[in-house]
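Problem 12. The chain below contains 188 residues. Write out its predicted structure in token notation.
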Amino acid sequence: MAEQKLGNPAVVGLGGFGLTTLILQFHNVGWMGVGPVIWLGLIFGGLAQMIAGLQEIKTGNNFGYCAFTAYGCFWISLALLLIGNQFNIYVSSTTDIGWFLVAWTAFTAILWVGSLRISRALGILFTLLLTGFVLLDFAHFGHPEITAVAGYELMVTAGMPRDIGIFESVEEYVCVAVKPCAAMAAVV
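Solution.
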């Protein structure tokens, strides 16, 4: 019996991470309200990214499992935090949100170390993400003017998973198309 081929869950996880990060930064620099951030954070950045992380178990990718599942939880918790603030349910101050971000900065620093050993693209992505979190930490602890700087830096960050995800989604087709050509060129 032929082995069933599995899709690559990283493509969805990277898409959810990148798009939701981009939309949050549109809010952080003042281009849009918080509504789209909440809905995208719950569904694509949150739920879809968590599902992708759980599917990474089947591929044996512990880093992907950890990163996608954890950041999916980040997006869901951030969306619920923003909803709570809107409806005065367990309201979080700027400092409270700052400490929430500091905890995620520490978690990101741990993954950053691991990413440097996996690939150059992931190393760059996590370097940018860690920088963005540090900037947001400063913005929430007395330097709100840094929020826009963090927003623009994280817009750049949001482009990385998009590019990695596009490559991952077309890699097998490009390799199938290129390998026969390379083999033929070797014969000629």
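Discussion. Residues 9-187 form one domain. Students who got a different answer should revisit the alignment rule from Section 12.3.
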